[in-house]
Design brief:
This protein has strands spanning about 5, 10, 20-25, 35-40, 50-60, 65, 75-80, 85-90, 100-105, 110-115, 115-120. The chain is mostly beta strands and about 120 residues long.
Length: about 120
Amino acid sequence: QVQLVESGGGLVQPGGSLRLACEVSGFSVSDADNIMSWFRLAPGAPAGAEREFVAGIRGAGGGTPNYRNSVRGRFTISRDNVKNTVYLDMNSLVTDDTAVYYCKARSPQEVYWGRGTQVTVSS
């Protein structure tokens, strides 16, 4: 059974930092065919709104990570193959980063989501 458990969210002031973690079981974050990503959904989003892509990283040998333009240079995605965990380091946070952040695992056959962790950027 595949499980993705996010942690590390919380309340932070503008300009602050947070590190999110996604602990994965039943799915290899380092497999060359797999992709791990972070998505987010802002508060007040209409029902049925799609989560927006934040950052993604491929398994072993998969090249450089991808980021949405608004977070490039501030956020860094990484993975720990031993712990089978993916991280999102978020720096210089702004109020528009406030959202529930979700971890996503994708293989050529399946897609899995975590339940999310709340990030609130406010003074």
